Amino acid sequence: MRIHISYQGLTKPEKKTLKQLINELAGQLENKLGRLAEKDVSLKGTMQKHNKKKDLYRFGAHLHLPHRILSADEEGEDPMALVRKVFDELERQAQRYKSRLRNEQEWKRKTRRKPLTFTATADTGPTAESGTAAATETPAQWFDQISPWLDDLYDFARREITYLQAVDDLRPNDILPDELVDAVLVTSWDQRNEKPDDLDLRAWLHQLAIDLLDEEVEKSRQRRLAISTEDVIEDEDIDTDLYEFYQPDEVLKVEDLIGVPENLPEVEAKQTLLEQQRAQPAVAQLPANWRRAALLHHGAGFEVPVVARILRVEVPVVEYHLQVTAHFLADRTRAADLPEGVRPEHVWRIVPESCPEDLREEQQTKFLEYKPS
Asked: Looking at 9-41, which runs of residues are DSSP E strands?
């Protein structure tokens, strides 16, 4: 493991003691990473002393793993204690990441997937040049068109589902990001002739994702209403095995959305991480229409008119949502270290989550090898 820690405002004895402790804990963490440590793993961070009159320390660290950056930050008067807290948090996140990679969850629910059906949709009208019917579009041809947007779609699904779970609009076992991506792709095939002319394919896939999520939120609400009106069952009557079987693979946490691109300069990376940590809880408190406007614009990079078409609202409405979101986040995140609050463009400046290879391969197999019955 490569270690790069900068020390600011510390005496030489303090620096020597803390450096020894950090190297020791980094070695222990490396051992617990197992095979992950065999790849290009690095630890970067900053230990600083804020106030010379009153001892106040802050230690922030980023653990760079393959395809993931884990971050932790602590502040306090005991530098040794806060260093241990940071490493404890990095270890917790690393173990969770390893569990996901190995697919060793204690419980594994049956993954829900939508079946693909095939209906020929050839244009029977003559073309201008040949006078012959257009070629029938196949699932394989359709997948070629949508596959470039799998990373974008998965990243959006992960973020939005995380926020919906944070505000309890969705429960962890309602829908997972890979299930949403699967549903969007199949729905796009089923409704390919209904794509609005004013949306390109990438924007339309995001619109479908939002529509499907809204349906899931309503289904979740109806399920909970139904449960609340049922009689209470005695514990011995509950089928425990069935209950555990349908537990979620992963509980999404807002903290997992915090991160910064590795190539940022150190000072900018520290500032961005601080804004992320302050902002994410506040983002989860935003009304859904405000959050989605900002996520589509700042996160997915859609222009305001396109965001308006995706959300089926007028452009001034989106502009208003972006404006009030900026004020809301700035107000909720003002602190001594961020007197002006966070900047909206930095809130969604996180490392995008790429579509997992197994999900990509699964979808490719579904579309490319589909044979109508």
From this structure: none
- Return the amino acid letter for 278: R
How many other CB atoms are there within 10 angstroms of residue 84's CB atom?
15
Backbone angles phi, psi at 47, to 5 degrees: -110, 125
Distance from the first to the final alpha carbon of the chain: 53
- Pick left, alpha or beta for residue 34 (phi over 0 → left; psi -120 to 50 → alpha; otherwise beta): left
Q: What CATH number does residue 77 fall under?
A: 3.30.160.100
Cβ proximity of 90 and 28 under 8 Å: no
- Whether 219 and 364 share a structural domain: yes
357 pLDDT exceeds 80?
Answer: yes
CA dist 30 and 356 (Å) reads 25
Domain that holds residue 233: 139-251+356-368
Specify whether 218 is located in the same domain as 364.
yes
What is the domain count for the chain? 3
- 77 and 148 fall within a common domain: no
Q: In what order do the strands lie in the sheet with 57-65?
A: 2-8, 42-49, 57-65, 68-76
pTM, 2 dp: 0.64
Mean pLDDT for the stretch of residues 169-175: 85
Q: Under a CB-based contact definition with an 8 Å cutoff, are residues 147 and 364 in contact?
A: yes
pLDDT at 125 (0 to 100): 39
